[in-house]
Specification:
heterodimer; A: mainly alpha; Rna Polymerase Sigma Factor, Chain: A; Arc Repressor Mutant, subunit A; 65% helix; elongated; B: mainly alpha
Chain lengths: 198, 90
C-alpha cells in the first residue's frame, strides 16, 4: 500500500479544507485521509526526538489516537500540521519522561546504547573524541530533564529551526534557546563530574 | 559558559548523537536519513481505534479525592470549632 504524505508545510492541498471540516465532525474516512497524508511527517518529527524507529512508530499511532480523540477541539481554520506536530511533541515528551525514571534506576545504564545506533551511522569526524567519551556524553545527555533533551536534540542535533521547535513545543523561540542553553550547561556540569573536559 | 564552550559541547553532542535524518549537515558531508518512513501504520491505527479505552485505575482517579478528604479530616482535627461552619455549608 503506498504511503501518502504531504510535504509542503502550510499549503493545504486541494480538498483539504473539506477533509478537515469532516474530521472535526468526527468522520472516520476524513481521519484516515489525514492519517495517510501526515503519518510520515509525524513519524519523522517523533523519530528525531526519541531516536528510536520502533518507538517512533508506536508514538505515531499514539499521536494520531490523541488526534482522533480530540477531533471536536480541532479548528479547521488552523493548520493541521502544526496541531499534529504539537501533539506528537507532547507524546514524545511523555515517552521520554516515562523512560527517564527507568533510566535513572537502571544501574547498567552506562552500557545502554543509543537506539539509533541500529541505523547506519556516519564515521565520527573527530578521531580525538573516543568511543568512551561519546558513550559517556550520550549517557549524561540522557540524564538531562526530558524538556531540555527535546529542545537540544531538535535544535543542535537535528538542526530544526527554532521557530518550528517553538511551535511544536508550544513555547516561544526565546524559551527554546534558553532550554538549549540550560541543556548545554547541565551537560557540561555532568561531563566535568566524570572528569571529561569538553 | 561562553560561546566557544557552548560550541564545543554542542559539537561533542552532535558527534556522540549523530542526526537521525534530514539534518542540514551530516558530519561526513553525506545525507543520512534514518528518519525514512518505511511502512503504512494505518492497520496499527485501526487496531488501536478498535481497542476499548483502558479503564482508569481507582488510585489514579481517586487520589485527589483522597487527598482532599485527608486534608479536611486534618483541618477538623486541629480546628474542631470549624465543624459547625462546615456543616452549615454542606
Amino acid at each position: 500500500m503506498p504511503v501518502l504524505e504531504h510535504s509542503s508545510l502550510g499549503q493545504a492541498p486541494p480538498g483539504q479544507e473539506e477533509v478537515l471540516q469532516q474530521f472535526a465532525r468526527g468522520d472516520l474516512d476524513a481521519f484516515e485521509a489525514l492519517f495517510r497524508r501526515h503519518q510520515a511527517q509525524v513519524y519523522r518529527w517523533i523519530v528525531r526526538t526519541v531516536r528510536d524507529p520502533a518507538t517512533a512508530e508506536d508514538l505515531t499511532v499514539e499521536t494520531f489516537w490523541r488526534i482522533h480523540r480530540a477531533h471536536a477541539r480541532f479548528d479547521p481554520a488552523r493548520s493541521f500540521e502544526a496541531w499534529a506536530r504539537r501533539i506528537a511533541s507532547n507524546a514524545a515528551l511523555d515517552y521520554l519522561k516515562s523512560t527517564a525514571h527507568a533510566f535513572a534506576k537502571n544501574a547498567q545504564g552506562w552500557d545502554t546504547p543509543d537506539p539509533v545506533e541500529d541505523l547506519p551511522q556516519p564515521q565520527p569526524p573527530d578521531p580525538g573524541i573516543t568511543q568512551e567519551i561519546r558513550t559517556r556524553t550520550v549517557q549524561a545527555f540522557r540524564q538531562l530533564p526530558p524538556k531540555l533533551q527535546v529542545a537540544a536534540t531538535l535544535a543542535l542535533i537535528e538542526e530544526q529551526p527554532y521557530k518550528e521547535i517553538a511551535e511544536a513545543l508550544g513555547i516561544s523561540a526565546g524559551a527554546v534557546k534558553l532550554r538549549v542553553f540550560r541543556a548545554l550547561r547541565l551537560l557540561r556540569k555532568k561531563l566535568k563530574q566524570q572528569g571529561i573536559e569538553p | 559558559m561562553n560561546a566557544s564552550e557552548q560550541e564545543r559541547i554542542a559539537k561533542l553532542l552532535k558527534t556522540s548523537l549523530p542526526p537521525v535524518g534530514g539534518a542540514k549537515s551530516a558530519p561526513d558531508g553525506t545525507e543520512k536519513d534514518g528518519a525514512q518512513f518505511g511502512r503504512d501504520l494505518w492497520p496499527a491505527m485501526l487496531q488501536r481505534l478498535q481497542q476499548p479505552a483502558a479503564p482508569v485505575a481507582w488510585f489514579e482517579s481517586a487520589w485527589f479525592d483522597g487527598a482532599l478528604l485527608a486534608s479536611v479530616v486534618v483541618w477538623l482535627t486541629f480546628f474542631p470549632a470549624a465543624i459547625p461552619v462546615l456543616l452549615y455549608h454542606l
